[in-house]
Amino acid sequence: MAFVAGMATTSSFAMVKLHSIPSVSAKGKTGLKLMSVKVRAGSFKTGGAGVLERPSFDQSQFDPSSQALEGGDIGRSRDKKGTGSGDSYKVLLVDDARHSEKLVAKVLPQVVPSVTPNDARKLFHVSREHGSAVVIVTVKEHAEFYSQMMVRGGLRSTIVPDSGVV
């Protein structure tokens, strides 16, 4: 017994042939056993892949964004918003009795790439003295991620907006 399935589009087709033979199970019931699957794919016209045509509409009306004005620099935009105090968030390591120097030195470098094990030990001692320590200042999305990963690693963490005051 054979099953044939096919799919055709404008430029290519696929035909699948499933060959199967009847088999008899140990209890005497008749069933089907799959022997092999053959797939044939190709193009109706040339046998190769289809090529997309370039659009024919006039693109001269659009200003290319890479054009530099007189004396300008292509790589920088003056009105581009930088990371100011409103965009930055502090990731804090909050002191907890469950924290050990070893745990902090293990988890922090895994979570925050710029923190070394020695930096993590220093942050541990600062958090013990002051109740919290600033691990990193970054954009909100990264700060949330780092804080969540620290919590998953067994550390207490929170994020607060960076006021910009030193």
Structure description:
It holds the Pfam family ClpS. Residues 57-67 have a biased composition (Low complexity). Residues 50-87 are annotated as: Disordered. Residues 73-82 have a biased composition (Basic and acidic residues). There is one protein chain. By secondary structure, the protein is of the alpha+beta class. Among the domains are: 2-43, no CATH class; 88-161, 2-Layer Sandwich (Ribosomal Protein L30, Chain: A). It has three helices and six strands. The strands form two sheets. It has a three-stranded antiparallel β-sheet, with no helix packed on it. A three-stranded antiparallel β-sheet has the order 5-4-6. β1 and β2 form a beta hairpin. α1 crosses α2 (117-130). The longest helix has 14 residues, at 117-130. The protein is elongated, with a radius of gyration of 32 Å.
State the main characteristics.
alpha+beta, Ribosomal Protein L30, Chain: A, 3-stranded antiparallel β-sheet, 23% helix, disordered N terminus, Adaptor protein ClpS core domain-containing protein, ClpS_core, ClpS
Summarize the structure.
The protein is of the alpha+beta class and 166 residues long. Helix content is 23%, strand content 33%.
